[in-house]
From TrEMBL, chain A:
Protein name stated in the entry: Aminotransferase class I/classII large domain-containing protein
UniProt cofactor(s): pyridoxal 5'-phosphate
CDD domains: AAT_like
Keyword Magnesium (UniProt): no
Biological-process GO terms, alphabetical: alpha-amino acid metabolic process
Record has Transferase as a keyword: yes
Residues of the Aminotransferase class I/classII large domain: 93-428
UniProt keyword terms in alphabetical order: Aminotransferase, Pyridoxal phosphate, Transferase
GO molecular function, one term: kynurenine-oxoglutarate transaminase activity
UniProtKB/TrEMBL annotation, chain B:
Annotated family: Belongs to the class-I pyridoxal-phosphate-dependent aminotransferase family.
Cofactor(s) the protein needs: pyridoxal 5'-phosphate
Segments forming domain Aminotransferase class I/classII large: 92-383
UniProt GO MF annotations: kynurenine-oxoglutarate transaminase activity; pyridoxal phosphate binding
Full protein name: Aminotransferase class I/classII large domain-containing protein
Gene3D superfamilies reported in the protein's UniProt record: Aspartate Aminotransferase, domain 1, Type I PLP-dependent aspartate aminotransferase-like (Major domain)
Organism: Ladona fulva
Recorded superkingdom: Eukaryota
Subunit structure: Homodimer.
Amino acid sequence: MFHRSPPQRFHSEKMENSTGYSMDYSKYMNEVGKSRHPAVLRVMESMYIGIPEGCVEFAAGKVDPEIFPFESISVKLKDGNSFCLEGNDLMNAVQYQNSAGYPPLRKQLKEMVRHFHKPPYDAETILISGHQDGVCKTLEMMLEKGKSVFVADPTYASGIEMMRPYQPAYYTIREDADGIIPELLIEALERSKKDCGGDPKKMGNLLYIVPNGSNPSGTVIPTKRKKEIYKIACDYDLLILEDDPYFFHNYQEEDSISFLSLDTERRVIRIEGLSKLMTPGFRIGMATGPLPIIEKMEWHMQVSVGHLSSISMMVIHKTLEKWGLEGFNKQVAYVREVYRKRRDLALASAEKYLKGLVKYNIPRAGMFIWMEVIGVEDILDMVLKRAAPKGVMVVPGLTFFVPREGQDPPKNCFRLSYSYVKMEDIDRSHSSPPLDIDIQEPMRMIKVSKCDYPRSIASASESRHYEYRNRYIVDFCNDAILSSSDHLFSPFDDLSCKSKGKLVIALDNVPSEARVDGEKLSVHRDGKSQRDWQFCKQRHRHEVTIGRTQ
Amino acid sequence: MSGMRNMWQLSGQILRKQKPSVITDYSYFVNDLAKGRKPSPLRELMRMLASASSNVIFLAEGLPHSDTHPFNEARFDLKDGTSITLSGKLLTSALQYGPTEGHPDLLQKLRQFQERFHNPPGFDDRDVIATVGGQDGLCKTIELCMDFGDPVIVPSPTYSGVLAMMRPYRPKFVTAAEDKYGFCPYKLREAINKYWSHGNSVKAPKLLYLNPTASNPSGTVMPIERKKEIYEIACENNLLILEDDPYYFLHFDNSEPQSFLSLDEEGRVVRFDSFSKVFSSGLRLGFMTGPRPLVQAIEYHMQASVLHTSSLSQIIALQLLNQLGWDGFIKYMKKIRQFYMERRNHMSEVASKHLQDRAEWTVPDGGMFLWIKVKGVLDVYEMVMSRGVHTKGVMFVPGHAFMPDPTKPCPYIRASYSLASYEDMDKGFARLAELIDEEQHHQAQR
């Protein structure tokens, strides 16, 4: 079949842009990216254009929705609106969908992108499985070993994890209070050119940036600087991967703009999502950019996730339909206020308790404060080992720096999030800075306490509700990796007897590095610690056995 | 951290009778890209959040606050009169970020599921995680193991989706034709030998893909004896078996087939299940079962990409499974099976009535497709794609889509009986008969 060339639509790696020159996007891609073509069945589906009336169809592998158990789906919104999915709507919610997204929702979100960003050309928009997947698929399309990639310093930790397997050559650009510094970007580009010895194959073309509410630093690049950076991208033939989940979480007086709105040369791949605006659990995001790149992303989605959850797409579609643009703006304003209040509270208590101890910039957007501890060189131990027993958890800053040779990244920073924590706890957490605790126990410790009555535990994430059927609660301290147990199979009173008592503990998840067979443990119970226990075995991910060493 | 070992090795000494050839080091099967992948620190933190004691204040994770979620309640009314209501904490789980591997309660259920239906040997060394449809697990496994230009073993015909997953790596397809029970072991051995006889320094194939129950498109169901033979071949050639089984419950037999997973003494099978044909194809919920090092590597990839499959889908599936219970689930699947069997019977009758000698086919033992070989026509592409659709008004899929080499002439077409009405089936096959007649006439004239 492919000895006939596929329709022109699938060979659009060359494209005319508004200034009249054509751009060949395949030069930016790696081998796998270049070789990716649409799945044959999808090509065929697109060839079934102009299907005559009354054509009998046996082609699609679609399932008859009659066999699915759903009759209707009713949703109530917090603002009093509600809707019901039945009939055709229900069918769409339970059926396979187009990889680019349920067409009416795709249309809605494409219009939204147009409304807020007014791209200077007819950019293509598809729906992706959360904004992170869009970033990941773009990187997987383009990165190559040893090829340069340009990132901010610090940058989004998960972005680093996406890049890491490809072992690119990282060129980092420091930020000031207004985001990445254009002069340093030019310097990095020149350095990269020199390092590649002018070989265009080695010279990378990707600038990965979180321009509004940078994660972790919270900077917003002002419009003037964005224009400067865009010009540099044009001069040096860069593509800009604009990762922008916090576009609406902007606490400044003036609105920020996106790189997409400046994109006259079709260099920007804009990734955004509804996660921080509506619901992260649905995994709905949008990718907007030049057709040849967005298409490749779509083809990759065709063979991987298929498409986004149809139910999620229908629910969001109906919600946006009910709201219209006005309702959406209302939601945005509400969300912005919620986070602004939290940011202000976090800043106030940081000022109250942490003055003189840390340095930080006031975040202009996003959900985080990036802090630098004064006078301490390396805070990793403090954060990982001493902070949790003191009752506070932050993210050590090292995770936000790309690996580099030569000079080490700063080790005294950490990221603090104010999005989720209870308002009253923000104050409490800041008031007990973990700077002066010294833990004596060299061993991993588990803490056992008696629970006198069955009770439900709502964990900090408020997402689980466990009834305690047994009498004991087990907490793993120091590592904070294992949860309180809800199944204890053998009597815990073995602790007091000298025989080789064993205890089987069922847990929610034991990461494989969490314990090592034969590793010594101290079991802490009722204020006393017994040090003659060890890990015996892990039955599977959810269950470990510990026993006495003698 | 003390005791960090190479993550590709299984940890823990499980005391049970083992054959000496159980795989303990999977690093041979994975590519360099996957070896370079590390766990996402932010996602690992998510775990800590979920499991920490309630007096730890988390300022680490960027979780959107549930106040900003605009939904109050979601109610799913079911056809049997019951309903599932999501509100309060349950709704929050459905709306919030979750662990990459899946909601813990759902995972527990899925593990029980696998134990009940497959009882795999050495289940302790295997992980089960939720994926975005069975397909994402499969795609990520291929991206985990394949290198550019690698050989890979697939049946012919095979699922077009998996061919599309592999094609960006420009693989060398080592294929063997199926017979009415699926992959033919001696033909498979022949194909592998032929591959090796081509040169000394060729790469060794590492992956064997199959769709053993109601294979798409041929509808074959592989009997257990044949599975054992194929498993032997996998052991001899040091292959991983990718058991893609979304139609596991859509066979037309009385009892569930025995899977490759249930035979897997050596830890070679990575199995992909799906709820798409069970609860809803829109859910995008599947699950994969495999040796811990491989599943963990895929989890790391998911942490960097999709994060997790839709929380809403997970919660709905969990509620449905809880409500049905195992017996209810089996009854439910029996109904679905009955539904497809009736449709298959009807299409077979209609095909016999209209096509007669013009084509041959084997009545499928499961699934939703009829795989028809047109007689007297070398290549059906134009017949199906242009004359079929535009002149006769009937739409099938030409078999080229399911062949590793789509450029070769192919006389097969695939017909789906899952959606068309009985009336349409009659009409459609009458038109197909005419189409074939005309095509045979054309061929004779040339």
